[in-house]
Amino acid sequence: MSRKRTIDAFFGAAGAGTPKPKKPRDISDGLHETSRDRAHLDGLDTNINHEVLDKAPAKSAAEELGASQITPGKSNDFSSYPAYPFPIPHLPPALAAELPSWPASLGRVINDQPDLDLLYFEPYVARGGGGGGSARSLFEFLRAELPFYRVEYDINRGGTSTHIRTPRWTTVFGLDDTSRFSSANSSGDGGGGDTSKILDAKTGRDVSADKFYTRYKPRPIPKCLDGLRLSAQEATGCEFNFCLVNYYASGADSISFHSDDERFLGPLPAIASFSLGARRDFLLKHKPVPPPPGGEHTDTMKNAMSKPLKLPLASGDMILMRGPTQASWLHSIPKRTGKNATDGGRINITFRRALVKPGTDNYYNYNVGTGPVYKWDTVNREMRVWKKDL
Questions:
Q1: Could you tell me the CA-to-CA distances from 185 to 220, 264, 328 in Å, in that order?
Q2: If you average pLDDT over residues 102-127, what whole number do you get?
Q3: Maximum Cα–Cα distance for the chain, whole Å?
Q4: Beta bridge partners of 275
Q5: 289-305 per-residue burial string, b: 16 or more CB within 10 A, e: under 16
Q6: CA distances to 22, 118, 323 from 111, in Å
Q7: Percentages helix, strand, coil for the chain, rounded to the nearest 5?
Q8: Among candidates 88, 84, 81, 264, which has minimal Cα distance to 181?
Q9: How far apart are CA 185 and CA 158, in angstroms?
């Protein structure tokens, strides 16, 4: 059986019923979600697409978060899970106390270009004061406490093998819609019994040995990130089950033009993208499209294809890309040079919804891989290989 037929068989009729978003609580219209990360993000173009399914509507942040997540926690509270390299602390009490007040501003709709639909929060995470406010605190906390990876991989194009070293630090958490973690608490806090099993979302059958879950062990979103996920769901009306985190150590770290349009995200996907730390330009440009039969593109379309839209994302900002945006537009974070190269670092957190198993395997392959775990060294102020204490 060919790969294409295998993928199409897996899809079945899933694409026929796209999950409908909830009504957002802010000034925006209806919404959706998105994906990313593969060789084309690192300067090469590949087409490795996968699949789709659907799920019940998301609970509200208040329902899912629970009082324990929206009130200050103890400083020694951690999220633990067998697939984590080490326990991940909960948010510091001050940040946990502020989380229910986010977003800190209303979302601004940007849809004045062909096929573009964005919702821009400036900011979402509060900033201000000499220390940069909550946005700066969240940046420093996540950089210091999350496990990171520098994924390397080989691709073959036209008979030529190329070795890729991802030009940024990455990590990922989550599981696609078809399955769930067996833990009673899905945010990596245990729950008794064997918490390492993965169960079918509909039947409860153990699917831990599925080929899409065995190459890399999926892991739940830790509580320190899950609270932000639930907040984003309530603010946008979208549902998210994956969290990707990129750390750009300096202006030399980048991500090239790409779109998050993998089939495993379904049609019209939406992605909530948070920026923390250094300000970086976010560029968008329309994908090339042929002119209409017997005519020419409008001036608006010519401008969209030739001149990128630039948004200077500051610490705490969040941009939601939704609707036809991923199908029609490319986006990137370009390198910075000269005096701007040393910028103190930036963290990008993206929430998206993977609908089928191949999405889970894809995300862990390109954001965790098989290399060493890195952790921020607060003394030397750099990422260093983490070694487990004996």
A1: 9, 25, 38
A2: 96
A3: 72
A4: 348
A5: eeeeeeeebeeebeebe
A6: 20, 6, 10
A7: 25, 25, 50
A8: 81
A9: 46
CA distance 183 to 173: 15
Q: What one-letter code names the amino acid at 262?
A: E
pLDDT tens-digit series, residues 295-317: 888 888 888 888 889 999 999 99
Give residue 255's pLDDT: 84
Q: What percent of the chain has pLDDT over 70?
A: 75
**Structure token digits, residue 240:** 């998210």
Taking the C-alpha atoms of residue 160 and residue 156, their distance in angstroms, rounded to an integer, is 5
Average pLDDT over residues 323-350: 85
Count Cα neighbours of 194 within 13 Å in the Cβ-side half-sphere: 6
Cα separation, 237 vs 234, in Å, equals 6
Query: Can you read off the two tokens belonging to residue 364?
Result: 């862990």
This prediction's pTM:
0.79
Tokens coding 277: 């730390």
